[in-house]
Description:
By secondary structure, this protein is mainly α. The chain has one domain. Helices cover 81% and strands 0% of the residues. The termini are far apart. The model has no long low-confidence stretch (mean pLDDT 81).
Amino acid sequence: MDFKRVQSAIVQRFRAYFYWSSLLFFRSFLWNTAILLTSAATATLLANNAPIWVALISLFVFRQKLEIKFWVGLLLSLVGLNILIGLDVWQTMNFNRGDILSIIAGFFYALYLLFTLESRKRVDTVSFMFFSLIFMIVVLYGATRISGDSITGFSRTTWGALLGLGLISHFFGWLSINYALGHLKGTNVSVTLLSQSVITALVAIPVLGESLSVNQIVGGLLVLSGVYHVNRRRVKS
């Protein structure tokens, strides 16, 4: 056995895990910081530019040919997302630091999706999640030490919310995304993830007692039609 080759492969693998974790960290850090500096609606809208970045990087860096149906589906979904969140967001947007951070967060999210797509060709979902989360914990701990933020002293209610956020939203959510990236195109996944806003609006009905406006219904239908348009061949097959 060539131990040097094995050692080199292990080092490269762990280095890759560190890179993926760093991308996810920067995306999460920028996104959460942006919400504090701008409105939640603006941050959500601008951070969801990841499909555009994924498409541009796939087109110009990886030289992938993107079909017309993808661009049509992407356009439908983005228009629907704007209507769903509210077109008045653009009127109040002044591109402050929070808005810029939201755009950059979308870029890092796109890089994470593309790097994960490539890695899932060689690594199974669970192993990828396990090592990525370990490195993510290390990076986050270092960030909290540098920033001086506390990771203790929260109330039971806060700990319960964090537990639910970690187990349901982060673990099962990212597990599903990483699994999908092992079976679908990155461009398709990035557009499909725009349906998160639609699901959020639907979940808010029983959980928060909210009701859907006409704009939200129209916007949600456009988002879903765009997602279907991008994946329609896969649906037919």
